[in-house]
Amino acid sequence: MTELLSVEQLKVHFPTRTGVVEAVRGVSFTLGKERLGIVGESGSGKSQTGRAIMGLTPPSARISADRLAFDGIDLLGISARERRSLRGKRIAMILQDPKYSLNPVMSIGRQIVETLRTHEKVGAAEARDRALAMLEAVQIREAGRVFDLHPHEVSGGMGQRAMIAMMLIAGPELLIADEPTSALDVTVQLDILAILDRLVADRGMGLIFISHDLRLVSSFCNRVIVMYAGKIVEELPASELANAEHPYTRGLLNCMPKIGEHRHPLPVLDRKPEWAL
Predict the structure, then answer these.
(1) Domain map (residue ranges) of the chain
(2) 5-90+172-276 belongs to which homologous superfamily?
(3) 104-125: buried (b, 16+ CB within 10 Å) or exposed (e) per residue?
(4) Residue 208: which region, alpha, beta or left (left: phi > 0; alpha: psi -120 to 50)?
(5) What pLDDT score does 70 carry?
(6) CA distance 36 to 29
(7) Which of 8, 159, 234, 236 has the most crowded CB, counting CB atoms within 10 A?
(8) How many whole angstroms separate alpha carbon 242 and alpha carbon 239?
(9) How far apart are CA 26 and CA 65, in angstroms?
(10) CA 53 – CA 64 distance, rounded (Å)
């Protein structure tokens, strides 16, 4: 399997008035042309890991790694300009809620065209045609009408489809999806996952799927990384998630509601100090 991404001992620290917050503490993994799930509670370091790969952490953050490489390119060693040329073109990120990620005063089509023309020298007519084709690829009906709408004029599911189209228009090789379905209802979630599944398969991309939904990840991804307190506590095939051995992963699985079983109140995690070591 071709290795797209190599992460070794990634650390992300934030200095604060009360001391240094260690958001990511020595995370290591590799990614090929596959779907890798990263799961864990809020604050476990999932999103900060994705943002460090993208180069989207705040300037105050301290980022270090023994190796952080995409397709052999040292992401921490290249210039800011070179990093920007990769971001959006070869590495893209779908954020959690489209209403916070799309520009409210620009039409959806204009935002997609802007992304494409930032990375490729194409004319306005060709850019529009490709944007319309990408909107159709993410299963938006009446793409020509939606092209001229603003983000507040579309539903959450359609906004997320538009966000996916914008992130994929330049043909990235690595896609990071940070909770891409958490703001959507269940039926729309399935539509979005089907779109991602088909696009990853057709384009041969690598996908990092960040989520707190263990059931979703176990059915959608090839491998799963479980994070707790900024560290990886377990890594296993997604199909084996139900047989996880680490007590934290077992605790997360045990906290999920089950159809046909009376569980009130739901159990909570009995955290152990050694999990964070």
Answers:
(1) 5-90+172-276, 100-171
(2) P-loop containing nucleotide triphosphate hydrolases (3.40.50.300)
(3) eeebbbbbbbebbbebeeeeee
(4) beta
(5) 95
(6) 10
(7) 159
(8) 8
(9) 8
(10) 11
pLDDT digits (tens, 9 = 90+) for 17-47: 999 999 999 999 999 989 999 999 888 999 9
* Joined tokens for residue 179: 């909770």
DSSP string, 157-201: HHHHHHHHHHHHTT--SEEEEESTTTTS-HHHHHHHHHHHHHHHH
> pLDDT tens, 68-101?
999 999 999 999 999 999 998 999 998 877 777 8
pLDDT at position 108: 95
The pLDDT assigned to 274 comes to: 84
Find out whether 12 and 48 touch, Cβ atoms under 8 Å.
Answer: yes
Are 92 and 52 in contact by the 8 Å Cβ rule? The answer is no
Peptide bond into 172 cis (omega under 30): no
pTM score, whole prediction: 0.90
**CA–CA distance, 120 with 85 (Å, rounded to integer):** 11
Task: Dig out the tokens for 231 from the structure.
Answer: 């560290």
Q: Which residues of the chain have pLDDT under 50?
A: none
Q: Distances in Å between the alpha carbon of 92 and those of 95, 98, 150, 226?
A: 10, 15, 22, 22
